[in-house]
Amino acid sequence: MVVAAFVGLEARRARTPENGLSPVESSVGEGEVVAMTLSDGSYLRLAPGANLRFAAAAGERAVALDGRAFFAVAHAGKPFTVRTDGGDVTVVGTRFQVKSDGEGLEVVVVEGVVEVAAPRGTARALADQVVTVAGGGPPVIADEADVWSRLDWPGGLLLFQGTPLGEVAAEVGRFYGVGVTMQDTAAARLRVTGSFQ
């Protein structure tokens, strides 16, 4: 039997800072992965060698990315945009990975909905879908039976943003290879925000 306690159950909504998006806390973990909390309440992990730049415009929730990062975006009044050479990824609140390597763009959607705007088209992807943009072409969406197999992070990945506790329990079970069930359906709907390493 596995028992897990989570700190970070919260009902408050994230807000977009008046002076723009910025990091408020960061740490370097296993494999030189940088974990970061942003001023709007979002969390992200940057893979080794990734480069992240923040938008200069006041009140804008935007970053520019070269490399690979996983985002757990807080719900707020303004969309959150990840700009890459292959296209822009825009969300309001969701969890997803973006990989931009100069030759293309790959977006793995774990939860929520993302919009990918590339030079030759736009696509909306849902959870358990992958969007690719190659060679300046249009975005292509594919269903993925196991999106977690596409997320290779040192030490694994347990990163949540307003995620229902029932889904958190399932992900913890998958992470540790054990069965986890929630018998209290009301508790399963509570939302969890946090990053666990």
Explain how this protein is built.
The structure is a single chain. With 197 residues, the chain is mainly β. It contains two helices and 15 strands. It has helices at 165-176, 185-188, and strands at 23-28, 34-38, 43-46, 51-54, 62-72, 80-84, 87-91, 95-100, 104-111, 113-118, 121-126, 129-134, 140-143, 158-164, 191-196. Strands 1, 2, 3, 4, 5, 6, 7, 8, 9, 10, 11, 12 and 13 form a 13-stranded mixed sheet that branches. It has a two-stranded antiparallel ribbon with strand order 14-15. A hairpin with a 7-residue loop joins strand 4 (51-54) and strand 5. It is globular. The protein starts with 22 loop residues before the first strand and ends with a strand. Mean pLDDT is 82; it is low at 1-16.
Rounded to an integer, what's the Rg over CA atoms? 16 Å
| Shape designation | globular
Order of helices and strands: EEEEEEEEEEEEEEHHE
Total count of strands: 15
How confident is the prediction overall: mean pLDDT? 82
In terms of per-residue confidence, which ranges show pLDDT below 50 for 5 or more consecutive residues? 1-16
How much of the sequence is in beta strands? over 45%
Structural class: mainly beta
Helical stretch count? Answer: 2
Specify the biggest β-sheet: 13 strands, mixed
